[in-house]
Amino acid sequence: VQLVESGGGSVQAGGSLRLSCAATGLAYSGVCMAWFRQAPGKEREGVAAVSTVGAGAPYYADSVKGRFTISRDNAKNTVSLQMDSLKPEDTAVYYCAAAPGTNYAQARALSPDTYIHWGQGTQVTVS
Questions:
Q1: Could you give the angle at the alpha carbon of 14 between the alpha carbons of 12 and 19, nearest 5°?
Q2: What are the beta bridge partners of residue 4?
Q3: Residues 52-74 as b or e (16 or more Cβ within 10 Å = b)
Q4: Are 121 and 94 in contact (CB under 8 A)?
Q5: What is the distance between the terminal CA atoms of the chain, rounded to a whole angstrom?
Q6: pLDDT one-digit tens code per residue, 76-113
Q7: Which residues, in sequence order, are CB contacts of 100 under 8 Å at separation 6+?
Q8: Of 127, 107, 102, 121, nearest to 37 (Cα)?
Q9: Strands 9-11 and 122-126: what pairing?
Q10: What is the rounded radius of gyration, in angstroms, for the C-alpha atoms of the chain?
Q11: What pLDDT shows up at residue 54?
């Protein structure tokens, strides 16, 4: 299984970035996916989760609700995170993660232990 993130970078406060994650090696359409982030000196935190088709609406951490949008394209085996109205406190390394064999109720709790496959991360810096 391989998850490869792209789209990170530097942006001014109030700006936007779109992250993408390409997944290979798993039955993608049946797997819950999520984005996490980790800032220097802080624990990894869940940002957003998306279910398999029909299993429930996307879930967002309170800190990003209304500003970030997670989506998936099962035809392309990708999951994206559109980040708008970015704030300096959004600065972190962002990770894509997959939770095969996990139901959405558990996946949306956004516990890192639930997710067994991780990308290498992409840096997002907001100044």
A1: 80
A2: 22
A3: beeeeeebbbeebeeebbbebee
A4: yes
A5: 34
A6: 999 999 999 999 999 999 999 999 888 888 899 999 99
A7: 26, 27, 30, 31, 116, 117
A8: 121
A9: parallel
A10: 13
A11: 66
Which tokens hold the place of 90?
């959004």
Structure tokens at 57: 């609406």
Range list of H helices, 13-109:
104-107
Contact 115, 52 (CB under 8 A): no
What's the pLDDT score for residue 28?
Answer: 75
Neighbouring-strand partners of residue 77: none
Nearest to 115 by CA among 124, 106, 123: 106
Residue 94 corresponds to which amino acid?
Y
pLDDT lower than 70: segments of the chain: 53-54
